[in-house]
Amino acid sequence: MRSVDDITAAELLDGLPSRVHEVYAPFARDIPDHPAFVEGARSWSYRQFSEAVDATTMDLTNLGIRPGDRVMIASENSVALGAMLSAASKLDAWGIAVNPRLSAREIDLIGTHSGARRVLFNAALSKEAADHASRVGAKIAAVGPFGGIGIGPLNADAQAEPVEKDGARQVAGLLYTSGTTGAPKGVMLSHRNLLFTAKTSGILRQSGPADRIYGVLPMSHIVGYTILLIATLMHGGTLYVVAKADLRRWPMPSPRRGLRACSVCLPHISVCSNTRWSRASSGSSEASCGSWPSPARPWILI
Hints:
Shape: globular
Oligomer: single chain
Strand order of the largest sheet: 2-1-11-10-15-12
Largest sheet: 6 strands, mixed
Radius of gyration: 19 Å
CATH architecture of the domain at 46-190: 3-Layer(aba) Sandwich
Strand content: 15-25%
């Protein structure tokens, strides 16, 4: 396989879909029963995830989300968050994923600054999201197949932005800093921005449907959004969704299990191609770059 250093930017851009939500369509068509996500005890096939996105898109439309609107989703990592971001893409709305562990001030500043049409809270998944939902008077209901979603009030004053057919010009998402040292700062990311990064990551990791990704990076962060969510779906892998990173709950990797990459040094996450694991005295797992060979590769931690 060619190194990413030998591939031109034009080649990386060639064949990219126009919109982020289109990345999983080939696998929903060709390997529909292959697992796209595993969340707790439930597995979601590519067909099921595609259907979930369609249902979520319909419900967002019924909630008044229009092309060009901003829709903010306060959620830990979850299939629901992935589906809502994909549904926003289908509607040509701007998806804004935020960590529900942000303060009330930070959540409100992001909602106001972005001009969000609605704010959704995954109240069923975390106490933090449920508390925010209660604070703003959100109505708890299902969105698509996902129950326990807090639906914030409609912002009737929100102005929809113009929609661009070109994915290089159409904004897919807004990602914000937390704002702990000032006002949160948002970055507008086009569909091509996100897709280019996801494709490059997949080439670097030589990703494919055989990969199982144990994901701890928050999807509200650019790396979690692109390398964890979009890149996994773009290359047909299976994402094991982890709402909150907890070293004690990680599947202990080993050369025998074929771990090829891992997350280390929480809250700062790194990836290395060959990893040696040890058990710290506290019982938590520590990883350091090692030199043992990488065998068959069923697990990748990100």
